[in-house]
Specification:
The complex is a heterodimer. Chain A is of the alpha/beta class. Helix content of chain A is 37%, strand content 26%. Classes of the chains: A alpha/beta, B mainly alpha. The complex binds adenosine-5'-diphosphate and magnesium ion.
Chain lengths: 241, 272
């Protein structure tokens, strides 16, 4: 796990405000049904954007289009101005790290799960890097644990650390706390807030919980029936609902 | 007994077939009294069975005097039919027939050719075709089982596979544990028949050899040889098929296409 150096951090500050991710009439059709419909948005470096909307609105589908886990029926996605189809899918998905609603850990130990992403690029994480990542999600000392003995909250934090191990530029979070009980939800939510502010990550967080959206994000986009209803400052967009 | 009443094998065979058909009809009638209606289905299956096996017998009869290369088109035809049958249950997988065709073809073909050259299968039509057909049929069953398991493994692990892809894994890595599970699942019946050999059953080939007057010890050994060949042929076929099929459930942009409820149209899309 490489930490951003001082100079990198400065550059990132300077880059703040530059459009990092842009979609252009992004659409996904499935069985003749329009699930994501012509969504055009711009996300700047360092932005924290809540993707809000009722259940079944197409939020997850929109997120999956961004790291190309599903193929758009039409429309474009640009990363720093580059059409994302020109980027190899594996590299694209490393840069846009995704945390799903459920942790979906691989059988084995916590450490094996953390190693998985970097290993795909031939990079072997050392023990100290793994424990450092686990510290960041408040799971110090968990490296050798078998994943079958984890609570859902712990598993979700491993899932977060597993994604962070890939050193992503953007975090795509799909309702990362919805499967958790109240206590664990608060804990994970705070953890995510700390990490994205500490690392100045660009972040899109899907949630149908408006309170959570307001707590976590500065900006928000509201999706309903696959269409973008509004995008702007979180307070305005979410209060309108 | 029957053997004393008939002069030729053909007459004897016909009489034996007649008796067993009557027996089967008796079972059907008895079932009918229990309100189990299988007359039509069973009747058709019996008819079809006798026609098919007689046709094969006639083909063998005609081929016995031919040079050995004439076995090639016969076995190839069997392999073609076998591929279609193995592919039938897994239509949701893109180009699955082509996977079966190569898997069964290369796996059993390699085995039949080397074993015939080495002399484990006798260098004659009467051995190459029956043993070859057994190898192909077993490869067909194993590949079909493995493919079926592969599909259900994937459909029940969509989340894990997506998670792996999202972490930058390539398709082969993302489905590795499911390929392993599917390969093992396909080979379980083969392993079971090796395990139970001689204890639970005396297989048909050995029975036949003993009935035809072969030394029971040699018949037993040869039966083991055949089962070992069936295992190798099936194993090779299913390994090749699984090796080939891995990437067929993904699109070129490394997206998992085979999902629960996925339509055949998705399979077509993956092919492009
Ligand atoms: N793979 C799929 N196949 C068919 N329909 C899908 C698929 N994924 C999502 N949908 C449908 O698209 C709509 C939006 O789903 P989703 O993006 O999961 O919504 P949200 O995350 O906002 O709850 C739903 O009606 C859902 O049934
Ligand atoms: Mg969702």
């Amino acid at each position: 796990m490489k930490h951003k150096s001082e100079t990198e951090a400065v550059t990132m500050k300077q880059n703040q405000g530059f459009v990092y991710l842009r979609t252009e009439e992004l659409s996904w059709q499935r069985n003749g049904q329009q699930i994501v419909e012509e969504i055009s948005v711009e996300v700047s470096r360092g932005d924290i954007v809540a993707v809000a909307g009722p259940s079944g609105a197409g939020k997850s589908s929109f997120l999956r289009l961004l790291n190309r886990l599903t193929e758009p029926t039409s429309g474009k996605v640009y990363l720093e101005g580059q059409d994302y189809t020109e980027i190899a899918p594996q590299e694209l998905r490393r840069r846009l790290g995704m945390v799903m609603q459920l942790p979906y850990l691989f059988p084995g130990t916590v450490a094996e799960n953390i190693r998985f992403g970097p290993a795909q690029r031939g990079q072997q994480l050392g023990d100290s890097e793994i424990s450092e990542l686990l510290e960041r999600v408040s799971l110090g000392g968990y490296a050798a644990r078998d994943i079958s003995n984890l609570s859902v909250g712990e598993a979700q934090r491993v899932s977060l650390a597993r994604t962070l191990a890939n050193d992503p530029e953007v975090l795509l979070l799909d309702e990362p706390t919805s499967a958790l009980d109240r206590a664990a939800e608060q804990e994970v939510e705070e953890l995510i807030r700390e990490i994205i502010t500490a690392q100045q990550l660009t972040c899109l967080i899907v949630t149908h919980n408006m309170e959570q959206a307001r707590r976590m994000a500065e900006r928000a986009m509201l999706i309903r029936e696959g269409r973008l209803i509004a995008m702007g400052p979180a307070k305005e967009v979410l209060n309108a609902d | 007994m029957l053997t004393d009443l008939f002069a030729t094998d053909l007459q004897l065979g016909a009489a034996q077939a007649l008796i067993t058909v009557v027996l089967a009809l008796g079972v059907i009638l008895y079932a009918r009294r229990q309100n189990i209606h299988m007359a039509q289905e069973t009747g058709f299956a019996l008819l079809r069975g006798i026609v098919q096996v007689l046709a094969m017998g006639s083909v063998l009869f005609l081929l016995l005097d031919q040079p050995l290369w004439a076995a090639v088109p016969v076995l190839l035809a069997m392999q073609l039919a076998g591929s279609s049958i193995a592919a039938r249950r897994s239509k949701a997988i893109a180009r699955v027939w082509w996977v079966c065709f190569r898997g069964i073809g290369i796996g059993s073909g390699l085995l039949i050719v080397t074993m015939t050259i080495l002399g484990v299968i006798d260098w004659e039509m009467g051995a190459v075709i029956p043993v070859g057909s057994m190898i192909i049929a077993n490869a067909m069953n194993t590949v079909a089982l493995s493919l079926d398991r592969f599909q259900s493994e994937i459909e029940s692990h969509v989340g894990e596979i997506d998670a792996a892809l999202a972490l930058g894994a390539d398709p082969r890595t993302a489905v590795r544990p499911h390929v392993q599970a599917a390969t093992e699942a396909g080979l379980i019946p083969q392993l079971n028949s090796l395990r139970s050999l001689g204890i639970v059953w005396i297989p048909g080939l050995m029975t036949g050899m003993i009935l035809a007057g072969t030394d029971p010890i040699y018949a037993a050994l040869y039966q083991f040889v055949v089962l070992a060949m069936l295992f190798s042929g099936s194993g090779l076929s299913t390994l090749i098929s699984m090796f080939l099929v891995r990437t067929h459930v993904f699109s070129p942009a490394m997206q998992l296409i085979l999902r629960p409820g996925a339509e055949v149209e998705d399979a077509a899309q993956a092919a492009t």
